[in-house]
Amino acid sequence: MILMYFIVALMLSSGLTVLIRKISKRNNIVDLPANDRKRHKSPVPLLGGVAIFLAFWTVACVAWYYNLLSLNLTVRQLIFLFLGSSVLMVVGFFDDKYKISSGVRLLLSAVAVILVLIGGMHLTGITDPFGGGTIGLDYWKISMGSWGTILVGANILMFLWLMGMMYTTKILDGLDGLSTGVVAIGAIMIAFLSNTAKFYQPDVRLVALILAGSCLGFLVFNFYPAKIFLGEGGSLFLGLMLGVLAVISGGKIATALLVMAVPIIDLAWVIFDRIRHHQSWSKGDRRHLHFRLVDAGLSERVAVLLLYTVSFSFGITTLFLPSKLKLVALGILFIGVIVLELFLNRRRVPSPL
Known about the structure:
The chain is about 65% helix and about 5% strand. The protein is built from 12 helices and 6 strands. The protein has helices spanning about 1-25, 50-65, 75-100, 100-120, 150-170, 180-195, 200-220, 230-250, 255-275, 290-295, 300-315, 325-345, and strands at about 30, 45, 125, 135, 140-145, 150. The protein is globular, with a radius of gyration of 20 Å.
């Protein structure tokens, strides 16, 4: 039964991708090979994230209709999550079609996250890695009467977490299929974790599998050489959904972190490096790890498969490692990524055009 929803999401996403690709080409909503960060030789249709968005929410609505999403998700949470993700898709459409400023994109992305928080998507606690149970985040509260209660500390942390995940998947979308595949891996890991006896959450598992199926159906057309790109809205939507999944699965932040650790560490390193050299922290360039692996001589396909392997290998450790050892794994990844960044810095070669 559960597997059927995964398969339907995959097939629907694939079918919608074909349709969206035609619409994008007809309306000239394409990505042009206009700078050295883009390796494709001809225009590639955008708006691919719309296919994932539509497939996910269509199948999720069917699951809700049959009362399969009611254990850990309320109707209000789902409605506001839909509204927040819809804002991202609208922003993405206008950016892909007309190009809007980074400041406006950032502001509207923040609005999307705030909508999710208004819906009651809270991170009330995180697992204590040292075996002390759960670290509560609900100590600073503001009552809003019939609107509920604002958990100030928890909401600030949740806001930063979701914004961080969204912009990590956005940056990760620099090589064909990379962002889509890594998010699919993260969703599958959360689905596995939600099926264990200790963390059994069948509704969370279903949402994760629907997201994974929607990603994989699109990945058929997005893997190298890509026939369609996610677009701005799609990359942000994937980050939002993976971030939300980590929260509703009982605050399994470590699971998402281990899957996404390499791009998160890389993003932090690149921002630090830009600030250190008195450059704009938001300026796009080829300093990110996935670009450097290609510039160092790996093919784009091999670089993506390598990063898939790292994400899967560390993500699967969440199924059997205790919390303390998850911290050790994160530490190993942190050191490994920094060492690799420094190594690639020393032997950096010009990128072939």
